[in-house]
Design brief:
It contains 15 helices and four strands. The protein is mainly α. The protein has four domains: 1-38, no CATH class; 40-102; 107-207, no CATH class; 211-254. It has a two-stranded antiparallel ribbon. It has a two-stranded antiparallel ribbon with strand order 3-4. The longest helix is centred in the N-terminal third of the chain and has 20 residues, at 17-36.
Length: 255
């Protein structure tokens, strides 16, 4: 609660000196405006019409709220439910003009974004780490895109994921837990996708067959470990799973 406001006085029933003074000043201004014939509230229909026109032009609801000066879409949603609004509120919304370039706000198929996030998860890049690197993708949205729950994403989000994937597709991530989870989900490694196919919903990943796993050589694993490679790095170099590398090491210890 913020003291010195009419909200504190009326809603929170605070009767401290600062809140009481604020309420008295508000009532005095109200009486003065009525005496002068000043309209404190105006019809909200022009506001609703303008918001609808902005939506029809391709702007998102959140983008309209931000352009009007609100930090979230909730304030704009609340204003739209009212029959009358303050003139200043009407003016700030009417001042919002359609953005000519809405390519970043349009929705596109999420197949490519989902597959890229799945591939990064196979490398050990967790949702928290990916969201941190992308800057504006929250972990819940990451989870929905990765699991295919979100069938579409904003074009700018898909572009951000593509750029991050291009940076990390050959770098092991720090999360073993994410890697295990991704393997349990049956996700595909980056090497299983061709660049021209990963965005195609009809394309299938180039799976590594069981025979390929059996051909892993313990000597190769030991050599790469001597070079300082991690288990994840070895798996990527040999195009196998981390489990295959660990099984090879267990066989080496048993022999």
């Amino acid at each position: 609660m913020k003291h010195g406001t009419t909200t504190a006085y009326l809603v929170h029933r605070c009767r401290c000196e600062t809140c009481t003074t604020a309420q008295c000043r508000h009532q005095k201004r109200y009486r003065l405006d009525r005496a002068r014939g000043v309209e404190r509230l105006v019809d909200a229909q022009p506001l609703r019409d303008h918001v609808q026109a902005l939506l029809d032009s391709g702007m998102s609801f959140r983008a309209i709220a931000l352009a009007a000066g609100w930090s979230s879409r909730n304030a704009l949603a609340d204003v739209l439910t009212r029959k009358r609004v303050r003139p200043g509120t009407l003016a700030r919304v009417l001042a919002v003009q359609p953005i000519t370039d809405q390519r970043g706000d349009r929705y596109v198929d999420a197949t490519g974004a989902s597959r890229r996030l799945q591939a990064l998860a196979m490398l050990g890049w967790s949702g928290r780490e990916v969201a941190k690197r992308l800057g504006r993708l929250d972990p819940q949205t990451y989870y929905y895109i990765t699991n295919g729950r979100n069938t579409t994403v904003r074009a700018r989000t898909a572009d951000d994921i593509r750029r991050l994937y291009d940076q990390l597709w050959d770098q092991p991530g720090p999360s073993q837990r994410t890697r295990i989870w991704a393997e349990q989900q049956g996700f595909a490694l980056p090497l299983a996708w061709d660049d021209e196919e990963i965005d195609d919903p009809a394309a299938k990943p180039h799976r590594m067959g069981k025979q390929r796993f059996k051909k892993i050589h313990v000597e190769d694993v030991l050599f790469l470990m001597e070079q300082g490679e991690t288990h994840q790095g070895i798996a990527m170099r040999l195009q196998v799973t981390v489990d295959s590398v660990q099984q090879a090491l267990r066989r080496a210890e048993a022999s």
